[in-house]
Write a structure and sequence with these properties.
Blueprint: H1 3-6, E1 25-26, E2 32-39, H2 42-47, E3 75-82, E4 88-94, E5 102-103, E6 110-117, E7 124-132, E8 135-143, E9 160-161, E10 167-171, E11 177-182, E12 187-193, E13 195-200, E14 206-213, E15 216-223, E16 232-237, E17 245-246, E18 252-258, E19 268-274, E20 279-285, E21 296-303, E22 309-316, E23 323-327, E24 330-335, E25 344-349, E26 355-360, E27 368-373, E28 378-381, H3 386-399, H4 426-442, H5 454-464, H6 467-479, H7 484-501, H8 504-515, E29 521-527, E30 533-538, H9 545-554
Antiparallel strand pairs: 1-2, 2-3, 3-4, 5-6, 6-7, 7-8, 9-10, 10-11, 11-12, 13-14, 14-15, 15-16, 17-18, 18-19, 19-20, 21-22, 22-23, 23-24, 25-26, 26-27, 27-28, 29-30
Helix pairs in contact: 3-4, 4-5, 5-6, 6-7, 7-8, 8-9
């Protein structure tokens, strides 16, 4: 019914919406993380696992399950995950879009908005809801005259709860606009057209928001108690990914802004607006400039409750993502989850300042929730159900893809010979594969996934160097080939295994066999029982991966040694909450940060 609008990113009459990572929000006590996700089924996710290259010239049929085609099969959910033990409460679930949630000032409720279908007449409604554990209170409910236009992009918007507790700011499902609602008497106080990303000062008497101005966004500051006549424009920015951030004293606003293009590249800079003086000043550059040919895909800032700890993330199209950790004006550290493999975004620091919640695999609404302990710098997926678990498996597989062209490989796996100075170290891949292996193993009880888990098993086992396990699943892996080209690629994968084990002669025989086939209308590759292979018919495929595989086999590079990983710390106790009615484990204990660097004055 609504597949046509679920992936719509362009609003009629307004600017094009960038792909922003949805926020993750900590409860005021720091015991819970709440977030919204949109995931396909386990089967659809695993069918997209990136074992084979999926470029347009490939004969792989996995394109039939691309993300665009899966839009009508997405399920939208809001989860609240308890940090101490990973237990999770499913706050909302729907086939229709919803917003990201917001905690109430006392931590006793989660507010969000969603599209709801009437069970009797099948009409659609837009409802604003506050959830108290498993209890629900509908604040407002209005019929939709037509199918909403914003679809998945609503996940990047969040309901905002004013600190004094009375007002909810809710995005519009049809166009860029927000409404301020007094949830106690359920009255709409104000509607702001062309507005996104509202934030309130700590006392709740002032607010900021971004308003569309052609191809730019205007940052606006306003006195909440005096109304729209005191809206004060502050600055114009090229793109926005999050609200502006109020300082703890409520006297200033912090926001990120892309600088003008220069010979060094485009830079992301931190700006501060002083409310009383009505002065805007540039504070500092937060990341190196974009290199030639790179795009800045998103930029994020979160600030600790003390105002000193600052965490910046700038997403570039051509490099790994780092979290820049500053205290005041002093850069202290750079954090690379999985040593830079995979895109991260939307960081949110815990009230205690010892952890970050963040997104992985973006940018956009398909990015996945995780948390990171600052002491160990260890990233842990938030996985309350099998659908998120399967989506994480696919995201980790995509993150492990080598930087070089996938068409030059039989599979998207890196060769053992290429884990040296040409790419990330074996320890980096192994760390990512350890997480992927655990998640894949956790899907053993899911009946849908049994025939689809073999590719992740082979993929992550190879990265771990567990070649005996790959051998055990090789026959089943061969049976998953959907066409003859994939059968030849799996034979090339066997050659990769031989290269990784130092069995150069066996690898050369396999590769030489593949190279000399007439690769036209191939139907099947089989062992002949005497150590050789037979081929019948062949598909048209003139790409060079067999020759590239041969070249690598003749010029091997010794891999680097692995790095030691630190063990996790034990979890502390948590405080009671209405969200203690939990349903399913995430499986990663919380740990407290220790030995933090000394404070620096800003």
């Amino acid at each position: 019914m609504i597949a046509s609008w679920l992936t719509s990113l362009v609003m009629v009459g307004v600017v094009v919406m960038e792909r922003s990572d949805p926020p993750l929000v900590w409860s005021p006590s720091g015991d819970w993380i709440a977030f919204a996700v949109a995931t396909p089924s386990v089967e659809h996710s695993l069918a997209r696992f990136p074992f084979f290259p999926t470029d347009k010239g490939d004969q792989v049929e996995l394109g039939k399950t691309s993300s665009d085609d899966l839009s009508s099969g997405l399920t939208f959910r809001i989860w609240a995950v308890r940090v101490s033990d990973g237990q999770a409460l499913k706050v909302a679930e729907s086939a229709y879009p919803l917003t990201s949630p917001a905690w109430g000032p006392d931590g006793q409720g989660l507010a969000f908005a969603q599209v709801v279908e009437d069970e009797q007449d099948r009409t659609l409604r837009w409802e604003v809801i506050i959830a108290y554990g498993e209890d629900r209170e509908v604040i407002t409910s209005r019929p939709l005259q037509s199918e909403p236009d914003r679809g998945e992009t609503l996940l990047a918007e969040a309901v905002v709860w004013e600190p004094r507790g009375a007002i909810l700011v809710v995005p519009d499902p049809d166009r860029i606009a927000v409404e301020l609602i007094d949830h106690r008497n359920r009255a709409t106080l104000r509607r702001i057209e062309d507005a996104r990303f509202v934030s309130f000062s700590p006392l709740g008497n002032r607010m900021s928001f971004f308003r569309s101005r052609g191809d730019q966004w205007e940052l606006v500051e306003s006195d909440l108690d005096l109304g729209p006549e005191v809206d004060r424009p502050i600055d114009l920015v090229a793109r926005i990914d999050q609200p502006a951030i109020w300082t703890s004293d409520g006297q200033s606003l912090l926001y990120l802004k892309l600088g003008n293009p220069s010979a060094e590249g485009r830079q992301t800079r931190l700006f501060k607006y002083r409310v009383s003086e009505q002065i805007t000043q540039e504070v500092k550059e937060v990341e190196s400039p974009a290199l030639p040919g790179e795009q800045i895909l998103g930029s994020y800032l979160c600030v600790g409750t003390d105002g000193l700890d600052q965490f910046f993330v700038v997403q570039f199209s051509g490099r790994s993502t780092a979290i820049a950790y500053h205290q005041g004006s002093h850069p202290l550290d750079r954090i690379h989850p999985f040593s830079g493999l995979g895109m991260i975004g939307a960081p949110s620091v815990s009230p205690d300042g010892d952890q970050l919640a963040l997104r992985f695999g973006g940018p956009g609404v398909r990015s996945l929730p995780a948390r990171l302990t600052l002491r160990e710098k260890t990233l842990r997926p938030l996985i309350p159900d099998d659908e998120l678990r399967a989506a994480w498996i696919v995201a980790l597989g995509e993150a492990a893809e080598p930087a070089s062209a996938t068409v030059q490989r039989p599979t998207r796996l890196p060769l053992g010979a290429e884990l040296g100075d040409l790419g990330p170290s074996p320890a980096t891949y192994k760390r990512l594969a350890d997480v992927g292996t655990r998640l894949t193993r956790d899907l053993e009880t899911n009946p849908v996934s049994r025939s689809l888990r073999v590719r992740p098993i082979a993929f992550f086992s190879y990265l771990q160097g567990d070649y005996e396990k790959v051998d055990r699943v090789m026959l089943e892996l061969t049976r998953t080939a959907m066409n003859a080209d994939q059968a030849l690629r799996i034979l090339g994968f066997q050659a990769q295994l031989c290269l990784a084990r130092g069995k150069d002669r066996e690898a050369s025989e396999m590769i030489d066999f593949i190279r000399h086939q007439r690769r036209h209308q191939v139907a099947r590759v089989e062992e002949d029982g005497n150590g050789g292979y037979t081929v019948t018919q062949g598909v048209s495929d003139t790409r060079s991966w067999p020759d590239e595989l041969w070249n690598v086999s003749q010029n091997r590079v010794e891999p680097r040694s692995a790095n030691r990983l630190e063990p996790p710390a034990s979890p502390p106790q948590t405080a009671p909450s209405p969200f203690d009615a939990v349903v399913t484990p995430e499986g990663s204990p919380r740990s407290s940060i220790q030995n933090r660097p000394p404070r620096q004055d800003p």
